[in-house]
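Margin note from the TA: students keep mixing up input and output lines. Inputs are the sequences; the output is the structure of the whole complex. Example:
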Amino acid sequence: MGAWLLFAVAVYAQQVDTVSYHQLSEVEVVEKARPSVTREATPVQLIDRKGIERLGVQELSEAVKRFSGVTVQDYGGIGGLKTVSVRSLGAKHTAVSYDGVTITDAQSGQVDISRFSLDNVEMVSLSIGQADNIFQTARIYASAGALSIKTSKPEFTTLPFHLRAQVKAGSFGLVNPSLRYEQKLGEKWSASLYGDWQRADGNYPFTLINGKLEDKKKRYNSDIETWRTELNLYGDFGKGGRLRLKGYYFDSERGLPGSVILYNDYSGERLWDKNGFAQAHYENRVNELFAFQAQLKYNYAWMRHLEVDNKYESGRQDDRYTQNEYYGSASALYTPWECVSFSLAQDFYVNTLDNTLPECPFPTRYTSLTVLAGQYKTSRFTATASLLGTFMTEKVETGDTPADRKRLSPAVSASWRILPEQNLRIRASYKDIFRVPTFNDMYYLRIGNTGLKPERATQYNLGLTWSGKSASFVNYLSVSTDGYYNRIRDKIVAMPTMFIWKMMNMGEVSIAGIDANISTEIPVCNKVDVVLQGTYTWQKAIDITDESAKNYRHQIPYTPKHSGTVALSIENPWVNLSYNLTAVGDRYSLPQNIEANLIKSYVEQGISVNREFKFNKCKLRLQGEIINLGNINYDVIQYYPMPGRSYRAMVAFIL
Amino acid sequence: MKKKKWFLASALCAMMAMFFVACDNDDDPTPGPDEPGTPDTEQYTAGFYIINRGKSKSNNSCISYYDLLNKKITGHVFETANGRKLGDSAQEFFQYGSKIYIPVYNSMIIEVIDAKTLKSLKSIEPKDADGKGEKPRAITASGDYVYATLYNGYVARIDTVTLEIDKQVKVGMNPDKLSAQGDVLYTANSGGLNSPDYDKTISVVNLNTFEVERNVEVIINPTRVITDSEGDAYVISMGNYSKDPATLVPNTLQYFKKGSSDAKEICRASVISICNDTIYGVYKQYGSTTYDFFTYDAKAEKMISDKFVTDDTVITGDPQEIDIDPLTGNVYVSVGGSNVNGDMYIFSPEGKLINKFDTEGLYPQGVIFVYDEQQLED
């Protein structure tokens, strides 16, 4: 046990610059290991439970919006699709992992992050490029950016069980009760059960601007009802390793209000989702030299899309899609010397799609990913190199069988602490990665194209980070600035060809940008702290596909040149207060940067207050928020209006 | 001065109604109720309106005006005249008498505007028997009525005075373009939303009774029908867009004689238009980057030329519509880009490029010519 602990400290604590760990004791460093945002050789941003509670963040998308270099494409409202694009590479290049296992949707290639509850979450982190932790599944290597969601693991100190019961309520008919129960099951085992139910009418008002007309309207058909259940079983066998089993089930029904169409308020689309998965993770740090981990997952996803519209002969279009995934992963970490480690990871997975659309080819995709990575790490210098090998083959029941795909994808990164006494670091990284065409890209009725090549992304990053106590009046200060250049080749885009759209490898995008982050904590007086965080992103993401095209060197759609966030919290014994601001510059809804396509900049603000009352062994937490304080009318995606000023309140009982 | 001329031009364009009708692809030589006689040679083409469909769900359908004298385009003229946007996915526009009718598909309205001022006269909202909106697709006219296809399978009859729909008749699945000749109306029933089980009929509607007289079977997925001066119907079927050459049903031009139900294939074609019984057609199969541009004599039933463009002009993008100015014989090809503004290519009757310019909107779908009096020297 002692050896293991030592080893774990060696593995984790090495990644941690002590300064940013001011709140945690050494023991906690092991338990709640998290990467240091300033020490990593590639940009990493994170928000933990404490930050989530301090800022009053209640949705995963709200947490992710606070990261720099990220665009959350938000179709508005509680049920509106929310996806994450990192540095303009597109949402399909972002991997989303839930407790270490990648969530996938082979059909659409992107993950709707609105389906995850934040209540159950311990930490959300976003890494861009290849993160320093080499002891990972191969799948984590296979994306340009990775959003990692980690749920809380139960820890028992006094009581052998914990309970958190909470109710959230808010504008537009939002009601969301949830329950989390944790139980210790003897020396080695513990379990947690989480469940929540959410419903909302979602019929929020908005202002539609049509030329000189301003129309007060309401969003209709935005209702949503969702069930989420999660069961975790944790086994800790000391030298025998650690086992974690998870079962997850998500069920929802929602109306799809669609985009606002002038003069037409009709909306007849509904969506049903059922998603269940079971996953097992086993990890054993055998000795100081050797560690290994393995996981298995089965994922089932079912979707029904119904559109009631008289344009269809039968008055409706009712489609069902079923996807299955079988996934297995094994990885080993070998540390021959204290500063040198190697890892080998092998993943294999099978994806199937079955739908009721005509001409469905019932594809089955077999993917094998192999990663070999090496790392040299001292207190001042970290260098990591990895090579990912991908082999993919596909079978279809009808139509063309796409060619097998083979690829090698290298990544290298380094971080160097310039001065021994100062936490000033310079970092540089390179990654060459790709995304495979999704089932929709390849097989969707008529528009699909089985001849598609993978879409390639090359990432370069150069950054400076600093963290420490800049002056006696601050607890800590952390700053980072990264300049980056990305290039997308063979971008998969829908092209109109004589009245019908078709997917093609037609795009090339050049993306240059700067991300800057600052975070500081200033004690004002006894028990009163001010925490300030800010991010800023500048991006020039231009289309360089075709010199003769009208959008040549124009900024790609939905990519602001400037964007930023500010979050300010005042923590005190009475009422904690936080204020947040998101500013997004002018964007264009279509490829051409002309007035007709312009979407105006906006600044959205919110405030949150919370207070915790402690009675004996239990706590009562009250929280309230005002979202979109200025009641501004804005769209993230054109003609998908966002809600105006709205309110949310929460009561939680914690034992 | 300029303004005055503009007004004159606009006023005259109303008088030219019959000409537009005669040479629009929605061919109809029957004059409307409020139309004067044919234009004389003193007139010239001052400019033209362009309708841009825009991208679906983007509410960016718009009308531009191109001044041929000053070679200057003015975008968004509907919005300027009405202080609001046209809507989403306007499929085309059609002038009849002093009015222009615009089927705005996703907005589920038929916008009727004054051809002189572009001011909205009415936004007709077609409704089905259950009171639900219907999506208008195309417009034509004959006698006292304007007719619109509705994508849920109907043709609506609109009274040109009251601008009310007084009757709807059921045709085939997802009717697209339509054409009227005297007392006969043809609709191209595509069944496009029911693929791969497309419709394959042309409904022949008797305009005296406003009832379907018969259905003529053609190749699957007909989207366009035009008529020549003899009332013969020329039909484009888009086929099945298959990627597999073995199962591909290509875009095909067919015709059947007035009164006949026997459709015969002519050649491959994707877009056609007719003027003075000459058909102008472009063939560009789904996914293809090359195209053929031909002319065909509808009276003699024979090909005139399989290469209309005689200079080295290459049309980049997808031809959406062809219009022929009956006064000059110039050929206007509306070309869509890839989510960027479209282009207008103007060719001389000899097939040489005269001009090419940006249409200030996405996916242009045709033009309406504006005529003026010849300016006399003092």
